Structures are given as structure tokens and as C-alpha cells.
Amino acid sequence: MATATRTATKAKSTLAEVARLAGVSAPTVSKVVNGRGDVAPETREKVLAALAKVGYSSPGQRRVAAPGPDVVEVAFDALTSAYTTDVLTGILDYAAVAGVEVMVSVTGGTSGAGLGPERRAQRMLDQGRAGLIVVTSAFSEAQLSAFRRHGIPVVVIDPQNPPPSDVVSVGATNWAGGKAAAEHLVALGHERIGYLGGPEGAECNQARLHGYMSVLMSHGIAVKPERIVHGKFRSEHGIEGLKRLLSLSEPPTAIFAASDSIAVGVLREARRQGIRVPEDLSLVGFDGTAQAEDSVPALTSVSQPLQEMGRSALRSVLRQAHGEPLDSHRVELATELVVRESTAPPAAPDPSRISRQSASSDGSRPST
Amino acid sequence: MATATRTATKAKSTLAEVARLAGVSAPTVSKVVNGRGDVAPETREKVLAALAKVGYSSPGQRRVAAPGPDVVEVAFDALTSAYTTDVLTGILDYAAVAGVEVMVSVTGGTSGAGLGPERRAQRMLDQGRAGLIVVTSAFSEAQLSAFRRHGIPVVVIDPQNPPPSDVVSVGATNWAGGKAAAEHLVALGHERIGYLGGPEGAECNQARLHGYMSVLMSHGIAVKPERIVHGKFRSEHGIEGLKRLLSLSEPPTAIFAASDSIAVGVLREARRQGIRVPEDLSLVGFDGTAQAEDSVPALTSVSQPLQEMGRSALRSVLRQAHGEPLDSHRVELATELVVRESTAPPAAPDPSRISRQSASSDGSRPST
DNA sequence: CTGAAAGCGCTTACAG
DNA sequence: CTGAAAGCGCTTACAG
Lengths: 368, 368
Prior knowledge:
Chains A, B: It comes from Sinomonas flava. Chains A, B: Pfam families: LacI (PF00356), Peripla_BP_3 (PF13377). By secondary structure, chain A is α/β, with parallel strands linked by helices. The first copy, chain A, folds into three domains: about 60 residues, Orthogonal Bundle (434 Repressor (Amino-terminal Domain)); about 130 residues, 3-Layer(aba) Sandwich (Rossmann fold), CATH 3.40.50; about 160 residues, Rossmann fold (3-Layer(aba) Sandwich). The first copy, chain A, contains 15 helices and twelve strands. In chain A, the strands form two sheets. A six-stranded parallel β-sheet of chain A has the order 2-1-3-4-5-11, with helices on both faces. A six-stranded mixed β-sheet of chain A has the order 7-6-8-9-10-12, with helices on both faces. In chain A, α6 links the parallel β1 and β2. In chain A, α2 crosses α3, α6 packs across α14 and α9 runs parallel beside α10. The N terminus and C terminus of chain A are likely disordered. The interface between A and B is large, with 39 and 40 residues. β2 of chain A pairs antiparallel with β2 of chain B. Chain A binds a DNA duplex through α3.
């Protein structure tokens, strides 16, 4: 598109010029350009040739042919967390460099995404969109396929459903991240480790969960299903999840939360119940957003390069839009465990400690 | 533009018609349409009005304007805080309702905004953009005027410089908010109240500061310049600002921070120095973002309806784009003081308490 | 800063 | 089917 634009802009040839070159009058060229019928085929040929030669476009056409920079659409499932801000920052960052414009929308949780995907794809096509980046969305495989069917490049970041095979997905090394989190907790001496996950079907959640499970298994620690609670990547899930885990007969001494937002919820509920972190309960988050750093205590968290993920997704979409080959169907960026203040060895080998804590708090709980 | 487009298609109004209506010559209208500078502001107004009335678009514009929904550009100064997420959420929210698309860019702190405003305005015109929303930006009055000269509707949210008179600005009742914050602290018994503000020139900062000052003055409390520190709306400013305030011979017993981000920085630095909030230091933030609720202790904060501000800005831009009259040149939405855990009466009438705290921490400070 | 005049690029109406 | 002529809508160059 960039090339076409430049040619058109450079030439800015006139209709008269074309007429001269074709050896006809201006009105005749005008007729050809506007698709009038009353032109001899032979004449039309000559004019068409001249037209092509000087790269003429009518004033109206010019605008359409030279429509400025590429436009990429970015669809967020929701726009609530530090996670999305970071991803969007990365995208906008690279967009500025690449001279591309970014259209943002929120699909709003409903998998419908406002318009049906067919209509949306058609609209994107009509408006010459270069591609689509879908962030943590619940688009179904069928919906994403609709875009691909129309030839629109699509890249997904941390999708909630497995994407079709012709859609590039960008994410972090979630399995390795989950492993690092669990290893850290096991190394501190924890054995009863709860997992407060994201949406059960989400690829990234699955990977984090399996990283965590693989560590337990390799250390001969039983994986107890009741210690695994899936939910949304939101603080409410942390609050409810902690309550649930504390209600177990053997509550965990450590929790691996699949996002910082979830961890913040855990922190808040723990504080409300008088459970000290990390003395009574160790906590690891995931994402490594500013939330992790700002919380009290500062959150040990598996950081993922969210801005880089955004940049990477845009790079991949543009590459596809320009017909360049994909180097990978799945782009996976490294995670890193950042140890802060929310993790420590378990208080005592005696497992009754936590349950006593939680029991005692039942009485003194403020009636919120 | 749905309406305008339809009108334009129906009528296909000409420049001459606009000229007649505005009582000027065709060349003059041409100048306005093409953003030439040499038109008297008064004349420009008349032409702009006539233009809007007949829904005129230039031949080039017509092509671009016709297909698809309106596109509004949103330019953020930066995209770092919960504040921007909330504003953007409000904008996208209303965009979905209004059937409008939103193009997001980050101007990147530099007042240059990538392209010069003239070129950017021209490009927006070429691409048939319906309008521009500028969030907390450092665009100068001259830069914003460039957009208006091209007839592009512009709305600013919390600008860092005073906007030109033909630009609508959307904000909250900052003066009242500053007043509420200070009243609350004074009512608790505080007299030495520091102010950690935003950029000195920013309208919203000025208003918050003056609300604060008016309370002190009406209570016969001296306003000490050394207790007022301007800076950026970021946590770093809270950290540095607290250090500065603590270095005073009479350090404050309470701080009013002009944003939650700043307050979070204060909280972090206070914690590092072993200063307890609210026992040793009361703290009020501004914005009422999730940050305020999630921090420990939860932050007393003047909440502003950020999402509503976003919605309101978009509504106003679209109204202008459709040639409807403005109901107001300045939209001001209500703030509300939300009292949480970070404020309490001062520890003792004896003012030496805080300074002892800060002095003692000098020795035990971790060497970060 | 304004607009009469000239001009540009294109289209239309029509004579051939 | 073709193109000279007239015309349209807009812009430019410039005198006031």
C-alpha cells in the first residue's frame, strides 16, 4: 500500500496529459475514466494504455487510492487491568514507529463482539483494514476463521479459546512461568500450594496450571483438585478463591495466583481476615504489572513482557498484511520470576497454623 | 457523520452555496476549508457555521466521508495510569453505543505530537475524521487552534495548557474536589497539610490547589509555599515529594496528593521510612481509581467520574461534528470525596512526632 | 484579510 | 463515436 500511494502522489498526472498521450480529446478520456459506454473499443484501449502509463487517477479515486497509513484494529475483551494497558502501550509504541494507525474496540465479554464476525470482517475489508489483533478474547475458533476467510490477518494474544491454525498467537512462556512460580514455593518449603487460575479453557491458564502441576509431581507432592480454583483474571476471584481455599480441611500455606489482579484480591481478603502475607501465607502473582510492585507487601510475580507482546503482535499482523511469510505460528516470549516480599518459608511444619488463623478470624470478621 | 453524510449526499451542497450563506466570497470559504491561515477569526466562525449548516464536504472529503462509521481520534499524552484506562473505557463505551470508531494514539510527552499539528490536521481532514479528543496533553493553544482552523472538532480532557476558546474542555469539579479534600483533613484536626500537585501549569492542578488553599485560608491557617510541591501525576513524584516535605523544619501531618498515583508513591516511601499511614501521616488522593481501593491502607480519595468524562467528551465531539450547537464550552462533572483508611486525626498536638519518625528512619533506611 | 479575476481540471451537452 | 465549446466547482495569484 505504501508503494502504491507514493507512485500516485508523485505523478499527479492530469486528464489532459493522458489525452495528449493517447491522441484523443480530454472529454474522451473522461468518458473512459467514468465508465461511459459511448467510446469505441479501439479508442478505449488506447486511452486505457495511456492511463496506465502515466498512472492517472481521477480526483475522487485519488483519495481512495491513496488512503494514508495502514489501519490495524485491536479488540480487547475488556479494558480493566494493568495488563491491557501494558499490551496497548506496546502496540501503540510500535505503531508510531511503523507509521500505522490503531483502532481500538472492546468486545465486551459477550463472544458476539457487537457485530457478528462475518459482518465485522466485511466491514473491515470495505474500509481497507490491514489486520486485527485480538487480546484475551472469547472469540470462538469459528469467529476467528471468518476473518481469515476474508483474507484479514489476525493475531491473538492470550486467547480464551484455542485459535484456528491459520491465526498467529502471541503469548509468554506460561508453562515455564507456572513452573518457576511453583519451584520457588516448593524451594521455600511449601507443599500445600493452591492455584487460583484464570478461565479454565484459556490456553495461558492451562499452561500455567500444568507448569505448576509438573513441579508438584516431580517433587512427589500430590496434586489435589480442591486446591485448584479457576475463575476470571480479576481481584474478585482472588477474594472468593481465598475464602474457598481457606475452607478446606487442609488449607494451603502458599498460593499461586494466575494474575496479579487475582493476587491483589487475595491480599485484600487475607488482610481483612488478619492473615499475614508472607508469614502465614505465601503468594505468587503473574504478569509483573505495576500492581505487583505497588501492592503491600510487594508481590512476588512471574513477569511477562506485555509491551513486547503487543509490539510483537502488531509486527506479525503487519508482516502478514504485506504478504511476508510468517516465521512462526506461535510467538512465545520469556517470562521471569521476580521475587519480592510476598513469599517466605511456611511458618511451621505444623499445618494447623493457617487453619487456626482462618478459624479465629471468623469471629472477629468485620461485617462488610 | 451519519447525519451529515446523508445530508451531504442528498444535497451535495457547493462551496458557492456556503459562501452565499456565510455572506462571503467563494475564495474565502475555500481558504477555510483548506485550513489556510489568512482568514479573520470572525469570518472563519461565520464560514464554519455555514459549512456545518449545509453539511458541506470538499470533493476529496466526499469519497472518504461516505463509507462506514465516523472515526474519532483520541490522543493520550501517555498511557500509563489507571486514569487513562478509565477515560478510554468511557470513550469506547459510548463509541459502541454511538456506532463510532475510535483511533488511539499516544503523543508521547513531547508537545510535538509526532506530526506537526498542521500536517496532522490535514491528514485527519483527508481521512475524514469526525473529531479529536485530547487527554491530559501538552498541546499548546496554537496547536489546538490548528485543528480548529481546519474545522475539526476538538475536545480536551484535563489539558496541561489552557485551551483556545473554541475548544470544548471536559473535566471534573477540581476546585470543589480540592476543597473537599482539605476540609476533610482540617476537620480531622490537621493544620500542617502538604500539597503534592500535578504539573504547575495544568488547569486541573491549579483548581485543586486553589480549592485546598481556600480551605486553609478560610480556617485562618497559613498557606506555606514550601508545603506545595508540583510535579508529574506519577508515583515517583509522590516518593520525591514526600522526602521533600519531610525535610522541612515543620513537616506536614497530612498530605493532599493531586492524584492517586502520586499518593501511591507517598504510601510506598512512607512505608519504606517506617512512617505509618494514617497514624503518623494522613493522606488523601485524587481520581478514585482502583488504585485507591487496592492500596494498603485503602486510600481516601477525591473520586472523579473518569468514565463519564470520556463519554461526555465523545458526545461533545460528535455533536460538533454533526453541526449541532454546543451547550457548553466547559463540561464539568462532580467529584466526590470517598473516605477510606488513609486519613485520621493527627497523632498529637505536639508537632515533633513526625519529624522524630523521619529522623529515626534515616539510620535504619535500607540502602535501595 | 478580502474578493474580483483568471485559471485549472474535469464534465456535460451537443453538433457533426 | 468524437471532440469543440460551454460550463461547473474549486483554487490561485494578486490588487486593494
